[in-house]
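Weekly structure sync, notes
Attendees: PL (lead), two postdocs, one rotation student
Agenda item 3: pending single-chain targets
PL asked that the sequence for the first pending target be pasted directly into the notes so everyone works from the same version. It is reproduced below exactly as submitted, 641 residues in total.
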Amino acid sequence: MSAIAGIYYQNGQPVKYADLESMFYLLAHRGFDAGDIWYKKNIGLVNRLLFTTPESKQERLPLHDRKSNLILTAEARIDNREELLSVLRLKTEGIITDSQIILAAYQKWGEDCPIKLIGDFAFAIWDQQKQKLFCARDTMGVKPFYYYYSGCFFAFASEAKALLELPSISCQVNEAKIGLFLAQLGGFSAYKADSFYHNIQHLPPGHWLKVDDKGVRLNSYWDWHDAASKIQSELKCDQDYIEAFRERFSQAVACRLRSAYPLVSALSGGLDSSSVSCVAKKLLGNRESLTTIYADCGMTSTDETAYVNAVLAQGGFSHQSVLVKDAISSAKIVASWLDRPLQMPTAAVFLATINSVKNQGARVFLTGHDGDTIVSHGIDYPYQVQSDNWQELHNKFVFQLVQGKNFTEVSLDNLINHQLVNPNSLKLYRKNLLRERLVSRKWQDKNSTINPDFAQKINLEELMKREIDYQSAYLPSVYLNHFRGVISDNMQVGTAQIELISSANGIELRHPFLDRRLIELCLAVPAHLKNEAGMGRGVMRRAMKGILPRQVCQRKDKVDFYGFIIPEMARNEQELIERYLFDERSQLAKYVDLKALKNNYQQFLTSEKPWQERRREAKIIASTTFLSIWLNQLSSTPIAP
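Predicted structure, written out during the meeting:
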């Protein structure tokens, strides 16, 4: 992790150095090893550097190539370095930095350069000759990029907070985002480029943006369908896909081991982090042990140590276990680092982990982040319906019910839409009963504590209708459904929040499952390998045989961390929750019916309800608390600590 920022006036107005300097200092936590500011007339670029790779120690950014008159600021780790060094014919005597590779790629391919780059990156290049600012972001948005554009003024930064430092950008909350946040719809929601601040946008993953005298133009550079189709034309049988997964996954892990400092790998006992750790250890061989970390919530219901120990028994690991506490108050710690209310309920788990990584002197943390979505649990049922393979369909459906799948309204409709209804009759069905039932759902059914006046003001019912229509829409391909999850807002929010928390602590996250080469393969995998014998991530389970312990490879269950969160809320976090929900200085009244909220909260504390209902109540109370904590950060009359 590092940081970038910049200002550009299209009308030629000079950039104020003080504005660049304010962003430079606000982003100091993201890069404390080096940093600089470059500016000339109406353009200015900022950079903060954290050294993580051997090559990064040679970086000097912003980078000014005087021959081409190009100036670059970047937060980047380029993973296909050797390939690019050869193609670009860069001299290999001495050290070539990742920034030099990016600049050379732009000189050779121009606006087509981002697709040539494998890795995590966000960068901006000022082309002095063409009077153009060119910006790009990696395909999965691992590196953040916020921007603001109004009139002739364009500004960008790694964090929205840096933009809010500028006098011309007001801190105005985006209330539509708050409404949908409170509704807590769940499911794979549509990606949204708008932030929680009015007029501050995200540069979407897999896109480039250019600013010149003609305005701002945004363009997607990643054609995932073409890439997946090419893979499908090359791989002929199941074994080809299994071997390709093993090869690409190993490649994704290997390129993320490049570090000038100690590296730690997550090991939760789940399929994803265990696969990353086992492959990383195999790649390291006997030359060094791999440091792993497990976050222990101290609850029987969340205990995964049996699976962790099965991995550790293979040898070659130096393992740490860290105790997790403060399920809700941890949100208070991370709130100032975030650019929106906390979405993830497991902030305490992640914060405890990151603190331990930091205390060990590491700067790189290897994760199994969202392997579930990338590899996919599969939704291949329509294809078995079409092939009349009803017995296999029956077996899979019963298996999911026996496993105790927790279906929300949207996910259950998704199951019916994409997995049980014959596609030939689906269109007529959706136009009538199913679609009408979904659209008619009210926000009160999702969260009855939302302030009715606020809901009416932002037209929350219409916002929800659009979201539910998107999630329940029938897509005629398992691949399109898979990609909908990969590019979902959920994926982006989760990735962004753990990035901000780790960056605040001087740690760079690396996610092998978010490697573009691996994603393209996973999208191409046949439906029956995505979900095999009723178990998701089938291709991965088969590829990891002999690498993962058998009991981990065949693991079917997942931990529900609300087993830790709910007791914490009911016993240890009451004082903090009540202070942020009901203090007279709370900013919630505008968005929440406090009387209804208090009633729901009392019921949560005193009544015995079925687990799923109690879980839903806890989720609403926790989310509302997180919102209050975030709003308090913005308030001129904050609640006392």
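Discussion points:
- The chain has 29 helices and 19 strands.
- The domain at 3-222 is CATH 3.60.20.10 (Glutamine Phosphoribosylpyrophosphate, subunit 1, domain 1).
Action: rotation student to compare against the earlier draft before next sync.
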